[in-house]
């Protein structure tokens, strides 16, 4: 007996010294938002209440994204549990199912839990039953941190009011602070040319000037990032360029086409500010396959994109047609079922398209051909623009198309992936949106699909991004955006 005690004591001490892993209780909306959240908690354990499984079952029917995610979450749970039924109560290791992404355990509720909820909370409600499970687990494991994970704000408030730990699901967030989001533009610091112009090389190519610069700023530059230096006391002329190559402390800057000049107008539209000029350089460059434009209402995202699309479809014939799509999320009350074909059903959602076509059709009338000429031009334009619903995008491939995804801030990262992977050879994809106007529940500025693609595509040689700053719609719209 005496020889066994010293051997057991160190083991007990080492177990105490290791910090206990957390136990996360998952709400249903987390699994329906991201089914792979089962594998996102690293070394910590996750607990799935019976009520979460019931709600997954209730939401599995239908063709919506939520229903698809509910079915995928159920399939993942089935894969993890099958063959390991006897270990459900103590916890099934997640390492094998997650390909070593997670080293914790999955626990399922195997017994009835009679939590003592306050009388004001009705036990018939699913949210309250999950909160009761969290209370029970906190009492059962007093030395362990039990945390409710939910995307439902009110449920988290209720849990915290009862003294429980609760938090949002953060793994899908690209950035905690959207002010850190890549803008696609960079102002060159004072003294840039003195520091980087020591062994300056410059040459002409396709009518544009290229500069090879070397210095401390070059490693921070990204391919297709726009750099600028406005005219000032030390600089007579503004310098606008974009990064075409980057290799360590060396970068190649290429001057831009000046789309603010009438001779370079795009379907009668000229750039009204610096960022619009940057955007048109991306939209009109056939080497750039993927463009993202962010900006508040009235910055010209849709107008610039449609003008570039029409020019390249009807004039240079680079693309066969424009395809425009958007998420059908109503701002107010839904107007119910809509009659007609897919295109006719989408018409009420495409008011932005109609408004911009009116503007573009008025600008493209150099010979004064009158109402008949304008009507004929509008008919031609409409014949080359197709409006599609997101619901029928799976399995499609777009060849030689100019694909515009409007209101892209309402897409989840998974939906965004589904859409962008539809692009076949010769197709250009343009995503437009304003992350300050998200209408979808459970999506935030940090977890929006638009934020996701801006962050993931930055620096790729065939993509570009610009955040448009100045509103150009009207003085009323600009003032309203500032003060309201």
Automatic annotation (TrEMBL):
InterPro entries: P-loop_NTPase, PhoH, PhoH2-like, PIN-like_dom_sf, PIN_dom. Residues 22-157 form the PIN domain. It comes from the Bacteria. Keywords: ATP-binding, Nucleotide-binding. One of its GO terms (cellular component) is cytosol. One of its GO terms (molecular function) is ATP binding. It holds the Pfam family PhoH. In the N-terminal section; belongs to the PINc/VapC protein family. Belongs to the PhoH family. This is Phosphate starvation-inducible protein PhoH-like protein.
């Amino acid at each position: 007996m005496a020889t066994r005690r010293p051997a057991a004591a160190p083991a007990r001490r080492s177990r105490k010294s290791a910090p206990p892993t957390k136990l996360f209780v998952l709400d249903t909306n987390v699994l329906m938002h991201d089914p792979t959240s089962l594998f996102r908690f690293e070394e910590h354990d996750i607990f799935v209440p019976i009520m979460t499984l019931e709600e997954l079952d209730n939401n599995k029917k239908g063709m919506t994204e939520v229903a698809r995610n509910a079915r995928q979450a159920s399939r993942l749970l089935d894969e993890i549990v099958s063959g390991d039924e006897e270990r459900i109560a103590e916890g099934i290791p997640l390492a094998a199912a997650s390909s070593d992404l997670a080293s914790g355990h999955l626990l399922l509720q195997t017994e009835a839990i009679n939590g003592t909820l306050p009388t004001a909370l009705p036990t018939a409600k699913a949210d309250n039953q999950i909160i009761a499970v969290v209370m029970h687990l906190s009492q059962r494991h007093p030395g362990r941190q039990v945390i409710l994970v939910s995307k439902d704000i009110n449920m988290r408030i209720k849990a915290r009011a009862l003294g429980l730990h609760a938090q949002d699901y953060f793994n899908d967030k690209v950035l905690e602070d959207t002010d850190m989001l890549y803008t696609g533009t960079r102002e060159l610091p004072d003294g840039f040319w003195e520091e980087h112009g020591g062994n300056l090389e410059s040459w002409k190519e396709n009518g544009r000037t290229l500069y090879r610069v070397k210095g401390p700023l070059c490693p921070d530059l990204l391919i297709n990032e726009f750099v600028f230096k406005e005219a000032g006391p030390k600089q007579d002329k503004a310098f606008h360029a974009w990064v075409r190559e980057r290799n360590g402390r060396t970068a190649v800057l290429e001057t831009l086409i000046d789309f603010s000049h009438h001779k370079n107008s795009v379907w009668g539209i000229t750039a009204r500010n610096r960022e619009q000029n940057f955007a048109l350089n991306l939209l009109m460059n056939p080497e750039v396959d993927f463009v993202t434009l962010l900006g508040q209402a009235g910055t010209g995202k849709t107008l610039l994109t449609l003008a570039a699309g029409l020019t390249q479809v009807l004039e240079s014939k680079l693309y066969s047609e424009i395809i425009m799509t958007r998420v059908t999320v109503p701002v107010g009350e839904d107007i119910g079922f809509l009659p007609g074909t897919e295109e006719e059903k989408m018409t009420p959602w495409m008011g932005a398209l109609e408004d911009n076509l009116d503007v573009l059709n008025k600008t493209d009338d150099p010979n004064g051909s009158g109402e008949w000429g304008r009507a004929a031009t509008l008919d031609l334009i409409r014949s080359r623009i197709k409006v599609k619903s997101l619901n029928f995008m799976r399995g499609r491939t777009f060849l030689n198309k100019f694909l515009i995804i409007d209101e892209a801030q309402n897409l989840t990262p998974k939906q965004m992936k589904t859409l962008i992977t539809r692009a076949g050879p010769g197709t250009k994809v343009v995503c437009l949106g304003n992350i300050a106007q998200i209408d979808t529940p459970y999506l935030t500025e940090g977890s929006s699909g638009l934020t996701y693609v801006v962050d993931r595509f930055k620096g790729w040689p065939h993509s570009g991004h610009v955040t448009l700053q100045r509103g150009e719609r009207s003085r009323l719209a600009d003032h309203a955006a500032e003060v309201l």
